[in-house]
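User: Structure please.
Assistant: Input sequence and predicted structure:
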Amino acid sequence: MIRFRVKELLSKLSFQRGERVRLEDVAAATGIHRVTLSNMNSPRGCNTSTDNLDRLCHYFGCQIQELAEYTPSDPPAPRLRAKKVSVPESGAEQQPG
């Protein structure tokens, strides 16, 4: 699961500015809907675009790893298996198909 750290970044920015920064302020500055920002604060996370992530990194002046973190889900997702493809050895003649 991907967890967004918007709350932590809001708190840090509020401390730096000496005033409370609200989701409405971030929404107005970034053009990201307030509901989307609120959903990103949810413990379950949310599905958002890379454009939104780019805007938030720019607004907070942070790197992506400061904005989002990966937490393994329970149980782990099944791994996809690649198909084995037989490839003729180099120099071997191929039969017309």
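The radius of gyration is 22 Å.
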